[in-house]
Each structure stands twice: as C-alpha cells, then as structure tokens.
C-alpha cells in the first residue's frame, strides 16, 4: 500500500513537471500608461484587471501601470503601441482622430444622453465596428472604459447660457470637432495636450477646460478654477488599447485572458466612476467653486446651436458611421 502510494505520488510529480500549470502562459510585463493619476477610477480598473489576470495566468501576466502621463500623452503613447514599443494605454478616443477619423463620431456634441446608452452602443456591434477600424491601424481595443460626461470649468465667470462662452479661452483636446464646437459657441478654443492643462490654467494662459468631474478632482484642476457648469456636452470614451504588433506574438490563451480581464476591469472602473462622480462634485464644491447646472432650456439652446457641427464633420467621420450611430441610438431610445 505504502509502495503504491509512493509510486502514485512519483507519477503525479512526473506528470506535473512535464505539463506545468499555466503552460500556455509566458511571463509578460505589460506596460499600460495613462494621462490621469493613479487615484482616478482607472486605477481601480487596472487593479481588478490584474487580479483577474493573476487568476487566469497563475501570476504570469503582470501589468505595470504608468500614471500622470509619465510615458507621454494619449497620442504619443498610442503611437508607441502602433510601433510595437509599448503594450498598452488607456486613452481618450478624441486625440486619435488623426489616425482613425471615424472615432470622431464620439466627439459629436450631445450625442449620448446617459451612460447606459453609451455602454449599449460601445459594448455592442457599433463598438465592434470601431474596433475593426482600430485593428486596421495596429491597435487592439480590449474594451471601452469610461471617461464620462464632460463639464466646463473656468476662472472668469459663471457660465449659464451659451453667450457666456464669448471670448473665453477654452482648452480643448487635440480634436477638430471639439475645436469647432467651442468656436461655434463663441469661445476662443485652444487645442492642447492634457499634460499641459494644469499649468496653463494656473498661469492663466487659458481660462477654461472641460472634463468629467472625476478628472477635475483627481487632476486637481479645481485648485486653479473658480466656476463649473454642468454642461454634459460630450461623453468621450476611454479605450484600453493594446499594441497589435505585440498582441499577435501572444498565445491564444494570453490573448483571451487579456480580453476577458479588460472587461472585468471595465466593469469595476465604470462602477467606481459612477460612485465617485458625486463625491468629486462635493469635493469641488467644498473647495469653494461655484457650480451651475444648465437649465433644460439653455441646454436645448446650446444643443440646437451645436448641430451645425454634425453636418460639418459628417463626411470626414464617414457619413455611414454617423448614420449608423444615430440609427442605433434611436432604436435604443424607442
Ligand atoms: C483630456 C482627456 C484626458 C484623458 C486622460 C489624459 O481632456 O479627457 O483627461 O484622455 O487619460 O485630454
């Protein structure tokens, strides 16, 4: 009996060394960069994604996250992915329109009305269609994460109607649709990389910027701004992009684990954003900023005035892309 037990143990050992656990996984160091800071909900998302990867890969797939633009801005990091020298980035879609013009569809003012509606479009077949365009440009979008609805902050005056934008120096992302949206409202819009925004606000080189509350909080813009207006003028998604050149060298199991865990991270990140939205707003108010919410009427006026932007950019985005999202939103809203 004892001999038999020993023999069985020996066989088990031999087997387990011949086929080690997680054989389909290699040790990988996955660098993922971000423009925002580690206390942004993207940090929670990355943690949840790592826990999922640990489980699936036996600790072999390791994320190293870089925060605060340490590996460059959204666009620079995305180009590093395309040339295969960096694995991943969490980036806004907006600065990538020079690479993939169709992404501009997400920059159209007042496109999405609620986060749920955005999730349905992004996680469904419209999102898949955009992912195909990204792949053709050397970028694998593992999942759509959340940046959120964007609101205006400024240091000059309360903004409660579109006429208040007149002459205001507003930083916009490096994106023509945002540029036109704000010029059209009378602002003096200035494209600028995210990494330069804090000091430009601090030195009054610009008066205003627009980002979700959570970013205004975690990137400390509230320290150098006096007024906020809840404009909800755009919901621009985050993309969790992976270098296609690197992804293609991974095993199918590694690829599947990355895709599945990116979705786990996404759900956590979206959940934390929804919770933090309110906390961030409270913090901004407590810091002494005046917060204005646009009246329904004013929002309708701004929306109506902004519709020229749709027509102006339709051809460059792709008429079929704009029509497809509008049709999908109409179907969701029915
Ligand atoms: C922007 C974006 C940024 C994000 C961040 C750098 O205003 O909203 O906050 O892309 O990752 O540039």
UniProtKB/TrEMBL annotation:
In the record, biological process GO terms are: transmembrane transport
Q: Does the keyword Signal apply?
A: yes
Q: Which keywords does this Swiss-Prot/TrEMBL entry list?
A: Signal, Transport
Q: A Pfam family in this protein?
A: DctP
Record-annotated membrane-spanning stretches: none
Name the Gene3D superfamilies for this protein.
Bacterial extracellular solute-binding protein, family 7
* Leader sequence segment: 1-23
Q: Which superkingdom does the taxonomy of this entry point to?
A: Bacteria
What do the Gene Ontology cellular component annotations say?
outer membrane-bounded periplasmic space
Which CDD domains has this protein been placed in? PBP2_TRAP_YiaO_like (cd13679)
Name the family the entry cites.
Belongs to the bacterial solute-binding protein 7 family.
Q: PANTHER family, per this entry?
A: C4-DICARBOXYLATE-BINDING PROTEIN DCTB, PTHR33376
**Matches recorded under NCBIfam families:** dctP, TRAP_S1
- Write the protein's name: ABC transporter substrate-binding protein
């Amino acid at each position: 009996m004892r001999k038999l037990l020993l023999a069985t143990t020996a066989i088990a050992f031999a087997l387990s060394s011949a086929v080690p656990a997680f054989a389909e996984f290699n040790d990988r160091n996955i660098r993922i960069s971000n423009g925002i800071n580690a206390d942004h909900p993207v940090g929670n998302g990355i943690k949840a994604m790592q826990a999922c990867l640990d489980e699936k890969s036996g600790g072999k797939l390791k994320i190293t996250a870089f925060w605060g633009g340490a590996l460059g801005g959204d666009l620079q990091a995305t180009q590093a992915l395309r040339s295969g020298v960096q694995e991943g980035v969490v980036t806004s879609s907006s600065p990538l329109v020079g690479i993939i013009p169709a992404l501009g569809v997400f920059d159209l003012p007042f496109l999405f009305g609620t986060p749920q509606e955005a999730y349905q479009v992004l996680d469904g077949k419209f999102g898949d269609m955009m992912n195909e365009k990204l792949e053709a440009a050397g970028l694998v979008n593992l999942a759509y994460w959340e940046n959120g609805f964007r609101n205006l902050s400024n240091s000059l005056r309360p903004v409660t109607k579109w006429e208040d934008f007149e002459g205001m120096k507003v930083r916009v992302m490096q994106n023509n649709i945002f540029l036109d949206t704000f010029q059209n409202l009378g602002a003096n819009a200035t494209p600028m990389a995210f990494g330069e925004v804090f000091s430009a606000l601090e030195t009054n080189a610009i008066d205003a910027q627009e980002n979700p509350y959570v970013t205004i909080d975690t990137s400390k813009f509230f320290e150098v701004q006096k007024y906020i207006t809840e404009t909800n003028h755009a919901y621009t998604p985050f993309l969790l992009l992976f270098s296609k050149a690197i992804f293609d060298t991974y095993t199918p199991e590694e690829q599947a684990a990355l895709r599945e865990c990116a979705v786990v991270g996404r759900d956590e990140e979206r959940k934390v954003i929804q919770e933090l939205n309110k906390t961030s707003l409270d913090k901004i108010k407590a810091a002494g900023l005046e917060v204005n919410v646009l009246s329904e009427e004013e929002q309708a006026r701004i929306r109506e005035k902004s519709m020229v932007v749709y027509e102006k950019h339709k051809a460059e985005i792709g008429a079929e892309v704009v029509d497809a999202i509008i049709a999908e939103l109409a179907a969701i809203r029915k």
